[in-house]
Amino acid sequence: MSTASSSNNGSKRGPGRPPGGGVIVDRAQLLEAATSLIRDRGPDVTMADIAAASTVTKPILYRTIGDREALTNALSETLIDRINAAVNIRVSTGRDPRDDFHAAVSGYLAAIDADRNLFLFVNGGGHDTAVLQRLVERSAQQLVDLFAAAGRDEVASRTWSHAIVGAFQIVALMWLRDDYCDIDTLADNLADLLWPGVSGGGRSSDDS
Questions:
Q1: How far apart are alpha carbons 140 and 142 in whole angstroms?
Q2: Which of 18, 21, 26, 87 minimizes the number of CB atoms within 10 Å of its CB?
Q3: Whole-angstrom distance between the N-terminal and C-terminal Cα of the chain?
Q4: pLDDT at 47
Q5: What integer pLDDT is reported at residue 80 of this predicted model?
Q6: Which of 54, 198, 56, 60 lies closest to 140, judged by CA?
Q7: Which fold has domain 68-197?
């Protein structure tokens, strides 16, 4: 009787495969499913939550994506792409450099605001040193180009770009937690604070 029943129900489900079919095993689909769940439920979702929402088991999720750190790194790349796109849309070639800088700040903050939960998720997970360095370089590259256009030399452009990426991370985390002002005021504050150094306006002629 059990043999007939097995025959009628098809082959036995393999290890790590959930019942019911409809398994998502494509990496891009799993990353999109993870992103959607994080947006809907917040940054505290677990790998088990993501596996369940994707109708796969954790072994399949880990085999396709990796562990939580690997997921965090992958979603960090996605977030950086969105931030870079938002900055590109706002920055206009040929405009006054101070206005372009303010636009870049506004675009950066707007992208974070639009994907708050994803930002909090990727900043709540650890990165190994090599991955962190690559992500910082990617985040900073647009700023490097912008500061060079404003007349800063290569060394100063890189230093300020890395400093600003770090400042944005901390300021954005505190802002998202406390919601202490509107996004335009925050952009104004950051631009007013950072632009004198970026443009070299804070240095005397003797420092040149």
A1: 6
A2: 21
A3: 90
A4: 93
A5: 86
A6: 198
A7: Tetracycline Repressor; domain 2 (1.10.357)
74 vs 80: CA distance, rounded Å: 10
**Spans in the chain with pLDDT lower than 70:** 1-25, 93-94, 125-132, 150, 200-208
Q: What is the predicted pLDDT for the residue at 154? A: 80
Q: Are 25 and 51 in contact (CB under 8 A)?
A: no
pLDDT of residue 1: 46
pLDDT of the residue at 18:
45
Report yes or no: 198 and 101 within 8 Å, Cβ to Cβ.
yes
Q: Specify the CATH number of the domain 15-66.
A: 1.10.10.60
In angstroms, the CA 142 to CA 161 distance is 8
Place of tokens 């509107």: 182
Q: How many CB atoms lie within 10 A of CB 143?
A: 24
pTM for the whole thing?
A: 0.72
Report the C-alpha gap between 188 and 2 in whole angstroms.
72
Query: Residues 6 or more apart from 25 whose CB is under 8 A from it?
Result: 56, 60, 64
CB-based contact 59:15 (threshold 8 Å): yes
Residue 25 near residue 60 (C-beta atoms within 8 A): yes
Q: What tens digit of pLDDT does each residue of 24-47 get?
A: 568 888 999 999 999 999 999 999
Instruction: Report phi then psi at 180, rounded to 5.
Output: -85, -5
CA distance 33 to 13: 23
